[in-house]
Amino acid sequence: MNVSMQDGFNLGWKLGAVVTGLADAAHQERATGFPIGKRIKSAPVTRAADGNVVHLGHHARADGRAKVIYPGGYDEIDVTRVPAIFRPRTGPLHLTDWEKVFAAAPNRWNATDIYAERGISRDGAVVVVRPDQYVAGVFPLDGVDGVQELAVFFDAWLL
Ramachandran region of residue 94, left (φ > 0), alpha (ψ -120 to 50) or beta? Predict the structure, then answer.
């Protein structure tokens, strides 16, 4: 029953996107390894907080929280300067969760380059993933135009 409900949700989302004209693959070339309408695939990345190699898919839970994949290496990231949205406060003590920022470049512990493996443009891309872990859209990460396209996308979906 769970699988059929998931399939129904996925089909409804896809049909709704096509009917309303929101199914736009204009920037799909920026992240060919994340095809729109397909479930995201895991890849090993380095968690910036502690340098541990983890599978990104294991941390992409359907909890509505944002994740950052930094295009540089683990040694280049200062997690204290990452925007606060990617450092949520959790639990009864409201402690900062430092485990939401990941480095994508290969390093001595992780030979995988997620940009090469998933076909992500080195210019950057925003891959919007639905709560059920399917790719909803791919947008450029360059300048005002990319931000505006992302805003238009979310304006259509969010109230």
Answer: left
pTM as predicted: 0.65
Residues 23, 37: Cα–Cα separation, whole Å: 9
Check residue 13 and give its pLDDT: 61
Average pLDDT for consecutive 10-residue bins of the chain (159 residues)? 62 61 59 78 85 82 60 74 79 86 83 84 77 78 75 74
Residues 6+ apart with CB under 8 A from 146: 126, 139, 140
Q: Which CATH number fits the domain that encloses residue 136?
A: 3.40.30.20
- Which structural domain range is residue 148 located in? 26-157
Confidence at residue 124, expressed as pLDDT on a 0 to 100 scale: 73
Alpha carbons 21 and 12: distance in angstroms, whole number: 14
Contact 25, 109 (CB under 8 A): no
Neighbours of 24 (CB within 10 A): 15
SS3 48: coil
- Name the phi and psi angles at 119, rounded to 5: 65, 35
Total domains in the fold of the chain: 1
* Structure-block tokens of residue 150: 């992302």
